[in-house]
User: What shape does this take?
Amino acid sequence: MAAYLTAANPRSEPRTDAQNRSAGATLDELLASAGYPRYAGEARDPENERAAEPSVLVIGIYRDNAATLGAWFGQNAIVFVRRAGRRSW
Assistant: This one.
């Protein structure tokens, strides 16, 4: 399981780069203190109408924890993935 999270532009309201960096640093500190492996990334608007948002892929986080972090940082949504189980036909 993994989640793709950002702390940038809460409630889809544009913030300054400095505000987004500060919020992102706080998110990273929370993730680091919890011991989650994570990888930096950025979300890009396919229409190039908005600046890229710094984001992070968090490995091993439960969905509820990811959703809570998203809510704490005012995000409208998060991306969550879970590993598909083995299926027999």
